[in-house]
């Protein structure tokens, strides 16, 4: 079976998303760095983005799988 | 609301670096996403990027740059050293009985606006009923607007949550009613508003017109706040401002200070409002109206005719209603020479001008302002002035200072200081070329003696003192003239001088001086009828005339 270029691109994008430094920021800016209401809001914000981006990566892999299964 | 924060400086510095690298990565990723099916990913990446860029990176940077949170560097790290304990804050506070207070030179913590705070402020301004706000809340709003004005990024966040400008502007307009008692707060609100508008829209104030709602929809106070920031040309601004102030006097306290700060407008505005001075003084703090009047007659922007209209109209009102301290003097001072009976600058009859001048000299605050002319003359004071004009003014002021009525009611020294100022100007005109830029004060170095009589002295003693002073000034001006002749290559004998020690005992020093002057004049090149003799006579007679010297001699007998 020939490789599906679009599926490859989506999987590559998913891999890039999973390697983003922004995913580590909730730890870098966590309680060992600063504390207080502002710090708490910041960490919550960063966790939300982490969740969104990882969910995006998961969906991209599923889409790639779907594209390949159609062939 | 209280808040707290603690942080590890090194860890936060590392976190800032991580934030910057994450931002670079997100930017690169956003550029790489091209597949239409990944649109949602692009949106999430953009959200994360915006939050990092506009909220968390600035927040972390601000924490790291706050002076108040800069780590304390102890003098010693050895805990066994009692010195370190003696340096500790609790110990020092306990020993000295100190208390903790907010640093008055720094804005309170609540004014350190975050982007979220700026957005919340805009939302609250748009949604709340400002009539329920307390005076403290309005003062805090003024502080916050100051912060927004200086921070374009925060102003942009503020703008995001302002759906329509009209409710916000009306809210600010109402604020000025409530804060009306404090012109400082009103002025700050108005000033900040224009700057915030400019910062938020990315335009200069002059272009703010394009983003504002129709001004007719706004409350009068809001219109007054906005009017100076609409980029109108001066006649349009004056026309609109005058109508607004007459129809809604409560706007005067807002509009007048803003227009006073605009030199190209204030003269026209006060010309338009000079017949409504009672209204102005009733509706705004008196200092605000005083400042507007004084700014309106500034010779750098006002013509003689404009200044004359304002000075005479305002002067009549001030004299009739009781002169406000210093105002009449401040109005007259830059145009003092126009009050000479021989001046043609003003068209008002000299008698009426003299009446205003007498009223100013009779009020100590105003007399002080007139006397200051000798120290700080208006830049155009001597432009086009002639020695004859100044000499006539010396005669007028001398008579006013001696006038019994003035003598009885005035602060004695202040009225006499006015004469000193006028005589100084005259001597400067006589001795120095008009407009040459030589300070009038130069003369006070030459004439160190001011012979003002004491308050209880008789008119005769006053006249004698005046004679001594004017004679000393005439001698100084003559000496300066002779110096200039010599500098140009002429050979001239030494001019007569006044010995201050002798003149104190001389009953009529002007007579002695004029006699010596007459003798000296004969020795000049060209003789007593020559050109030099004529010029020297004009200099001396501007301050001391043979007729008055005869009077003083008669009085001395």
Description:
The complex is a heterodimer of chains A (71) and B (557). Chain A has three helices and one strand; from the N terminus they run ααβα. By secondary structure, chain A is mainly alpha-helical. Chain A has one domain. In chain A, helix 1 packs antiparallel against helix 3. Chain A is elongated and about 55 Å long. The model of chain A has no long low-confidence stretch (mean pLDDT 89). Chain B has 557 residues and is mainly alpha-helical. Among the domains of chain B are: 106 residues, no CATH class; 119 residues; 111 residues, no CATH class. Helices cover 64% and strands 0% of the residues of chain B. Chain B is built from 28 helices and one strand. In chain B, helix 26 packs antiparallel against helix 28. Chain B is elongated, with a radius of gyration of 34 Å. About 6% of the residues of chain B have low confidence. Strand 1 of chain A pairs antiparallel with strand 1 of chain B, so a sheet runs across the interface.
Percent helix of chain B: 55-70%
End-to-end CA span of chain A: 8 Å
| DSSP E strands of chain A, number | 1
Distance between the ends of chain B: 83 Å
SS-based class of chain B:
mainly alpha
Contiguous low-pLDDT stretches of chain B (5 residues minimum) are: 203-211, 432-455
